[in-house]
Amino acid sequence: MAFRFPLVEALRAQDLDEPSELIHGFHAYPARMHPAVARVLLRELSVGPGSEVLDPFCGSGTVAVEALISGWRALGSDLDPLALRLARVKTERRGPKTRARFLDRLAAIGAASSARVRDRDDVQAKISADERRWYEVHVLKELAGLLEEIRKVDDERDRLALEMVFSAIVVKFSRQRSETAARTTDKRLRKGLVTEFFVRKGEELAAAWAELSAAIPRPHHLPRFVLSDARRLPRTLAGEYRCDLVLTSPPYGGTYDYLHHHARRHAWLGISPKKLREKEIGARRYLSRGNGGAGSRARWDDEMTAVLGSIAELLRPDAVAVLLVGDAELGGERIAADSQLERLAPAAELEFLAAASQPRPDWRGGPPRREHLVALRRVDFAGPRG
């Protein structure tokens, strides 16, 4: 089918060497869509200048960044406020003056933080006792002092960007083993290293802004972002919003817990994870328990049916939705994601158009699971299959 060709091309593109990742690699974010996938699909599925793309699971903003440089209008939503803060910073268009101002503030904060470390400043970390246990005492104090200096910045735009620089390094300097493994491990970290990495990461962000700015066309459309559960997005938008393309990567069922992955960041930045705790879709803590089975499958089906219904409501009559999905892991059982979407699509008044698949390593050490790009469109407006 014609729709399958851009899907295959997009999957192949992520395995090719890229000359640049633009700003995508600035901040770790588990399971983000590969930029090449978004780039190829935005190129192949454009319906003309000012086309509108919606990403209901925008995460760190991969689709939004690629839409910005491809001339698309973009709207991203996510249930996690951290994701939206990060996506906004990554899609800023900063000219030489605002980048220079940011670098001046970054250097001043670095100098103030180094002085705190040298003077053994007795600063209190404003996080819970349970969170403090994730850090060596001297690291805890250095992070706390660094954040105090960031919070003194009066310019909101720079302050929020500096907070995302802090967010980008905080897990590295905790006892958390890695971004996706919430287990403790010993790390030997000398005093002052936190500040050095913070300044280095901030300089990396400024350089990435410069590269991004050079890649953005004129005219362009800055992406918009809203906080929303993907299943309630039509209610959140509460208007006549419709898009030409939905391009998104929902969580892979039973694979991740974003609540746990970003817990260190939420605590330092004062972000309440209440909604994420209650409403996170596909969460491993709910779907991969030992008593999974039929209950987990039914829950995952219900969650994805609601997502598909929301997507269908927001598509224009001639629009397409493309979902990057991975096979679910439900109570030890693999569930093929493309087959699940094909089975659930009719209930959401969507037609399954095409899919392309490839194997991906299982980071937990199991056999490879398959990753799929699936194209859908609304039944009530669908013509003959391409």
From TrEMBL:
Name of the protein in its database record: site-specific DNA-methyltransferase (cytosine-N(4)-specific)
Pfam families assigned: UPF0020
Entry-linked InterPro entries: MeTrfase_CN4_CS, RlmKL-like_Mtase, SAM-dependent_MTases_sf
Gene3D superfamilies (alphabetical): Vaccinia Virus protein VP39
Domain Ribosomal RNA large subunit methyltransferase K/L-like methyltransferase: 28-71
Family classification: Belongs to the N(4)/N(6)-methyltransferase family. N(4) subfamily.
EC number: 2.1.1.113
